[in-house]
User: What shape does this take?
Amino acid sequence: GGTTLAYLESSLNGFCCEEELSRSNLSKCGIKVRASNATYGCRSKVNKVWISNISLRTRLSLLLTGLLAIVLIGLGSLWVKGTRASIFEEIESATRVSEQWIHVISRQAAHSPSGMEAESLLGLLQSAGRIRANALEVVDGAGQRLYLSPPPTYKQDHSAPSVFASMVEPVFTDRRIQVGDLTVLIHPDPSRATLDAWDDLCEMAIWAVAFLLVLFVGARVALDRALRPLDSLISALDRTGRGRFDIRLPVHLAPELGRLARAYNGMADRLVEAVNENVRLENDQEMARCLELL
Assistant: This one.
């Protein structure tokens, strides 16, 4: 009932500040609750205390930084979309060039002596290796592979993360060109273009993080200067709470701070008048009692 809940709250307040609650701690109090629930309550209380200790300046700085981060994320999504289109155009144009080149060398191989067309074609393809962003494969009529281009040497030991690659790499279909009894397959390979895009993204992310940090520090410093009059207002309120009404705040140019200063000064003047009036009334009452005694 209510008594048990009240006893639980008092017990939790005692344990949360020093250690995480456990079943043994709770059994000592004679309360049967789950230790996980007690731990969650303790952590929630600590989080609330931590959040409440964040100053207004820091909160506003974090808000501005967070808003700009959201804007940068939105721009990043547009960049990903544009990069995907750029990779498609680059690989598609390279594939068309490869198709034209293979048609040219196939005509050259056709002028080779009888029975040497296949050897001539393979020799030309082997000398070319890869054609820009395309891997070449040659298979015979039985489907047996006769030649496959070597892997790319550009940034050979690096690759973009699979998640990023799935976001920016378009889907390409292999091109098939029939040259006599042989079939030349063109495999579009956007991996190197994707890796370049990933490197660009990493560089931009570093600059973005640095910019956000500079923005946070700059906003924090600017808010410190803009809200500095609040410190004097808090100090004046503390002195007023202790019965000192002699402080008056300067009126600042900022309209909001100026209204606060005028409001405080007016309150302090009224408090001084009220205190003086009370003293005068007490003196009058004391004098009246003395006259009655006479």
Q: What stands out?
A: The CA atoms of residues 100 and 106 lie 10 Å apart. The radius of gyration is 40 Å.
